[in-house]
Amino acid sequence: MAITAFVPEIWNAQLMVALQKSLVFGQSAIVNRNYEGDISQYGDTVRITSISDPTIGTYVANTTVITPENLNDAQRTLTIDQSKYFAFEVDDIEKRQALGDVMPEAMRRAAYKLRDVVDQYIAAFYTSVPAANDLGTVTIGATPTKVYDEVLVPLSVKLDEANVPNENRWTVVPPWLYGKLLLDSRFIKANESGTTAGLRNAEVGNAAGFTIYKSNNVVNPSTDLWEVMAGAGNTAISYAEQINKTEAYRPQSSFSDAVKGLHLWGAKVIRPDHLAGVTVEVA
34 or 121: whose pLDDT is higher? Predict the structure, then answer.
C-alpha cells in the first residue's frame, strides 16, 4: 500500500514513533545462544547429547565385584527452521513530500517486528513444561496476595522439587498480574518488606526468589487465561540465528528506495525440567 498521506501535504519533520511492547522472552537472562556459533558457520542443525546418571552402589572391601554399566544417551535437535522477512519501499515523490526521514523509522519498526516474532515463539514454550512442574490452573480474584501465595511460591517449590538451581530464577507475567503484585504491601512498604533495599516506590522486581518480568507476549489462549512460565537462568531454552541480514536497494520498476530483511533462526527447549508453569485465570 502506498504512503499516499505524504502527497501533496507536508508532514512535520518529527515522525510519530509507534508504541512498542517490551520484548522479554528472547533476552539473554531467559535463553542461551550456546550453539549459535556451530549453526552459523556449518549447518542448520545441532544435535545436543545428554547422558543418564550413573548408578551409585555400596562398596564392601574384598567382596564387591565392580561391573561398569553402560550409560544411556539422549539427543535433542536444535533446528534453524524459522524464516521471516520484510520488504518495503518509499517512492521518491512521497519521500520528497515528507520533511521527516521515513526510512530509519520504518527500518526500526521492521527490526522490532522481527524480534517480536521471536519473542512470541519462545513464550509459546510453556507447552514444554513437564507435568510434574505444572501447577495447573489458579484463579486470581480480588485478593492481591494470591499472586505471591498461590502462584510465585508454588512455582518456586516446583523448581526446588526438580532440583533446579536457586540462582537467576525468573518468571514472566502479564501486566494485569503484575498490577496485582503492586497492590501487595509486602512489595511496596519498607516496614513490611523486611529490608531497606529492594522493592520501593511500587517497583516489583523480585519476589519469592524470582526476578519478575512483565510482557504482553505472555500467551493468552482464551479470554480469561494466561500461561505464566518460570525458570532458572538460561539453561532451559536455546536460541540461534543463522542469517540476520538487511539490504537497501533501488527497485528497477520504480523510482524509490527499498529495504528488505531476512531473519533465519530456531529455538528449542533443551532442559524442560528447568521450567515450571501455571495457568492463571482472572476472576
Answer: 121
The predicted pLDDT at position 40 comes to: 66
d(CA 208, CA 160): 12
Q: β-strands 31-32, 237-249: how paired?
A: parallel
For the entire predicted model, the pTM comes to: 0.80
For the chain, give the secondary structure using H, E and C.
CCCHHHCCCCECCCCCCCCCCCCCCCCCCCEECCCHHHHHHHCCEEEEEEECCCCCCCCCCCCCCCCCCCCCEEEEEEECCEEEEEEEEEEHHHHHHECCCHHHHHHHHHHHHHHHHHHHHHHHHHHHCCHHHEEEEEEECCCCHHHHHHHHHHHHHHHHHCCCCCCCEEEEECHHHHHHHHCCHHHCCHHHHCCCCCCCCCCCCEECCEEEEECCCCCCCECCEEEEEEEECCCCEEEEEEEEEEEEECCCCCCEEEEEEEEEEEEEECCHHHEEEEEEEEC
- Who wins on pLDDT, 262 or 198? 262
